Amino acid sequence: MGVHRELDDTPSQFAAAVDQLRSAVVRPEVVVDDIPAPTRIAPHAQALSGEIVVDGDELASGRFILLHDPAGQDAWDGTFRCVTFARAGIEFDLAEDPVLPAVGWSWLTDALGQRGAEYIAAGGSVTVVHTEGFDSMAEEAPRSQIEVRASWTPTTGVADHLGAWSDLLAAIAGLPPLAPDIAYLPRRGRV
């Protein structure tokens, strides 16, 4: 996993958190890979992408970024910050539902709660868009999309936070929740 400073400069607290991400249990449908982490937001960062592809169709995709600033940041109310993004195509009639943004946010908070991923200082947005082409793009089929963007300060181990993000991806993809007695498979992809 790529850490932004030389290994000698990496705080043990951040290295332990990255190890937790490596061992996180995510939904079996989610393929997780390393991606380049942002370099300007915090001294240390780890970034992952995730996607759900079924029968060649991408149902959902997103990013999970763990930021660490040993000095802390006032807006975070801590030294770690989880920053996430999740996006999926949705049916047009669902996109017209005025409660969908609130439901989209509840998918995230419910996933965090079900994983026991405790947090503070949460914030974010849910965007629902409908796109329709005109003139030279009129042949393109109309499409609708939901995007959930959020950040929060984890107060428990970050593995459960990554797992909750994978549950969010599954929820916006329209996959049913897994029953509590169903075992998750080991994560696929590189991390």
Brief summary of the model shown:
The chain is of the alpha+beta class.
Account of the 3D structure:
The chain has 191 residues and is an alpha+beta fold. The chain has one domain (7-172). Helices cover 24% and strands 37% of the residues. The chain has 4 helices and 6 strands; from the N terminus they run H-E-E-E-E-H-H-E-E-H. The termini are close together. 33% of the residues are buried. The model is unreliable at 1-7 and 183-191 (pLDDT under 50).
Question: How many distinct folded domains?
Answer: 1
Mean pLDDT rating: 89
Class derived from helix and strand content: alpha+beta
Report the strand count.
6
The major pleated sheet works out as: 6 strands, antiparallel
How large is the count of helical segments? 4
Query: What kind of oligomer do you see?
Result: single chain
What coarse outline follows from CA principal-axis ratios?
globular
Helical residues, percent: 10-25%
Q: What would you report as the Rg, rounded to the nearest angstrom?
A: 17 Å
- How far the N terminus sits from the C terminus, by CA atoms, comes to 6 Å
- Beta-strand content estimate: 35-45%
Helix and strand element order: HEEEEHHEEH
**Major β-sheet strand ordering:** 1-2-3-4-6-5
Unreliable residue runs: 1-7, 183-191
